[in-house]
Amino acid sequence: TFHTHPVRQKMCRALARSGQGLCEELRKAFHSHDETDQKRYIKEIRDARLSLCPRGLSPSSYRLYESMQLGRCPVIISDDWVRPGGPEWDRFALFVRESDIRRLPRILAEAAAEAEPRGRLAAETWNVFFSGQRRLMYFLEQLVALQKIKQGTMTYPQLRDLWVGRMFRRHYNWTLLGRGKQLIRRKMRDLTQRPAPTR
User: What global pTM score does this model have?
Assistant: First the structure.
């Protein structure tokens, strides 16, 4: 979706002007894609040399890990994205600052020659760190690493902002006000759907 962050619209405008890439908006509810949508999405990533992974509501995107799994070089467009520990990200991913989005077509053209070896390394890295067999152990290792952060070096709000951005929390009602609204809506729905008492 284009509306989740302004950088996505700028990215698509830059690509449209250059005729160099594909941007397509799918207007469906999150996680409601059918098998046809999924197969088409996978094919489009596999048909590409580079896979654009712009930030959305949060600093990261599912597309980053999906691109790695499919063996495509991810192009990470997010100033606030924090690199998870372990992978050597600079060896297989490209990074584009949000302020450089107008230069994106030139950056992609310059990177095209190294896209294939980077894609292979991205898939190898995904298998080592994020594949189904490895993922749980990786998450546990990261939790242990977080626990080892010296107390006082980072505040809770700093850690929370690393985990998820404010815009993401607002959009998905992960704020106190949002939670309150959800509770009221649920109660109202329960009241209106309750069957009338019979005598």
Answer: 0.72
